[in-house]
Design brief:
By secondary structure, the protein is of the alpha/beta class. The protein has two domains: 79 residues, no CATH class; 228 residues, 2-enoyl-CoA Hydratase, Chain A, domain 1, CATH 3.90.226.10. The chain is built from twelve helices and twelve strands. The strands form three sheets. Strands 3, 6, 7, 8, 9, 10, 11 and 12 form an eight-stranded mixed beta sheet that branches.
């Protein structure tokens, strides 16, 4: 401790016997100018010494100093406030809401919070790849609660988790249908509740045709396109028979890819998958009986399964 700090700490309050007669204002004498200057000088020296040793006082006594912008700013206080690091050996990755390839800027509010319930395949794939590179991570859980999304996003997530060398589990909560189910099938094992909504192996591109309403409202759709089918599928114009054929052609191609992916990922006969691929979903127990999932259970059962796989207690970090 600096000598100047020791001197400061040695200051004592002197007790004097009070002469109450001197408290009468008439008896009060104004201190001389010399004494006033001397007193101010002592006060300034004291304050300067206190400022000079504030860091030492903070270190010795755990005191902090108030910062107008950030509040209590002492480094030791900040360190004490930090939560201890929690070690984990299993990475949890969430697939919630609509599955898209990326989240657009207009999906966030002014504070950076998501306005819609959606997950981006690029974020999920990144998390899976990071878990693969992390030596302390022994397994990966894909927590799924989604009714679907886009086929490319489903394919990206499904392939990423399928390529993982560590044990992978897809744990379905409320639902894993359509694109979300496709993504889930890349995992080694799929767990779901007996009441989860599973499947939905189908593709849709349905939309509202506004052309009759526009005509009623006196609105005219003017087609300014260089290609015959450039504006097909626009909701403000009627869909022609040729355009319908084009859309159905594409939907059938995607549907066939969906069926092949499920058959390959789940090791199921493709004809069996085709029979199930009518777009409908089913409860978890029925999905188990049809080979669409592997086990009934939630997080406790998933942890038990992974404990056997990695040979140690499971600690999940999200």
């Amino acid at each position: 401790m600096p000598n100047i700090l020791k001197r400061i700490m040695q200051f004592q309050i002197c007790k004097r016997k009070i002469n109450y007669s001197k408290l009468n204002p008439r008896n009060f004498k104004r201190p001389s100018f010399k004494k006033t200057i001397k007193g101010l000088a002592i006060l300034i020296i004291f304050l300067g010494a206190l400022i000079a040793v504030k860091d030492e006082i903070s270190y010795q006594f755990g005191l902090g100093f108030w910062d107008e912008e950030s509040g209590y700013s002492d480094e030791t206080a900040e360190e004490d406030a930090q939560e201890p690091e929690v070690s984990c050996n299993v990475m949890g990755v969430e697939l919630h809401g609509d599955l898209v390839t990326y989240i657009t800027p207009d999906s966030y509010d002014a504070d950076g919070n998501l306005l819609y319930d959606e997950s981006a395949s690029q974020d999920i794939v990144f998390a899976i790849n990071e878990a693969e590179k992390n030596e302390s991570i022994k397994a990966i859980i894909l927590e799924v609660d989604s009714y679907g999304g886009y086929p490319v996003a489903a394919e990206e997530v499904g392939q990423a988790i399928k390529k993982a060398t560590k044990p992978t589990v897809a744990m379905v909560r409320t639902a894993a249908t359509s694109a979300a189910y496709w993504a889930s099938t890349g995992a080694n094992v799929i767990f779901a509740s007996a009441l989860s909504d599973i499947g939905g192996i189908g593709v849709t591109f349905s939309y509202l045709d506004n052309s009759k309403k526009n005509a009623k409202d006196g609105l005219t759709y003017n087609s300014l396109s260089t290609g015959k089918f450039k504006d097909y599928g626009d909701p403000d114009k009627p869909l022609t028979a040729e355009e319908r054929e084009l859309l159905m052609r594409d939907l059938k191609i995607i549907h066939e890819n969906f069926i092949r992916a499920i058959a390959a990922n789940r090791d199921l006969d493709i004809e069996k998958v085709k029979a199930l691929a009518d777009g409908s979903s089913m409860p978890g127990q029925m999905a188990l009986e049809n080979g669409l999932i592997d086990r009934i259970g939630g997080m406790p059962e998933v942890k038990e399964y992974l404990k056997e796989k990695i040979g140690e207690e499971v600690e999940v970090c999200w």
